Amino acid sequence: MEVVTTPAAMQEQAIALRAAGQKIGLVPTMGWFHEGHLSLMRKAMEEADRVIVTLFVNPMQFAVGEDLDKYPHDLDRDCALAEKEGVDILYAPAAKDMYGTDFKTVIHVGGLSSGLCGADRPGHFDGVTTVVAKLFHQTLPHLAVFGEKDFQQLAVIRQMVTDLDFPIEIIGHPIVREKSGLAMSSRNSYLQHDEMAAALSLSQGIEYAKDISASGAVASVEHIKEGIRKIILKHPQCAIDYVEIVDALTLKPSVVFSQNSVLLLAVKINQRVRLIDNTLLGYSEK
Ligand code: PAF
Hints:
single chain; 286 residues; alpha/beta; Rossmann fold; Pantoate--beta-alanine Ligase, Chain: A,domain 2; six-stranded parallel sheet; three-stranded antiparallel sheet; 9 helices; globular; binds pantoate
């Protein structure tokens, strides 16, 4: 596996791969790989001839006071994991090379990026779309694989790709969970032992909603959201950012369930660790 560190060297390599007729698959990440990331790499390897994994903790998507400075980082550890998976190139640029000293462009996807995580983290998705557009130009992929755990991020990126005519197939890949049910995330490394029960309340809320939808029982959107809030707020360490049931395409709140309803959760544990989770409910109210 080759490690590339500058945008110019990366783009040169990508142009050469394309000239050699290779189909490029991209997995954009911020590193501290876990099984969820590795599953995205495997998916990209199934779909493409060459796989590029990017590792860049993007300052532009963190607000002041968020966890940019403590985001877990270990390049050697991540290199070893990516190499073991058979990744061809790990692209790990420095912030100074990504943004230079006079960067002025922002890509803003209207509507989809403003609610949910966008409301709790103003400017976050502008940082995501701007860096993802840059990564696309630097790595020239035919396809890119993103985790469905960041459901809103995936919707925002799909919209950007459509609106800006990127000739790139966007593939969403399912959430990978710990045996306990906890959705895998690099931020789980912030959790202390005595915060685990609180963290598990997100996946317990999801199971509760799935059980109701699978049983075919008639329940209102409000009833299910209230049930989930109760499960989460049993833990005094939890503060809810949102518990929402929305349409998977528009991200607008569902008033009644449809086959496209998705449950999205964001919860802060001890005001320190922000966790998100989601599930498609695929349930129609009769
Ligand atoms: O999901 C992430 O890890 C990041 O938001 C991404 C897509 C790599 C952009 O920095």
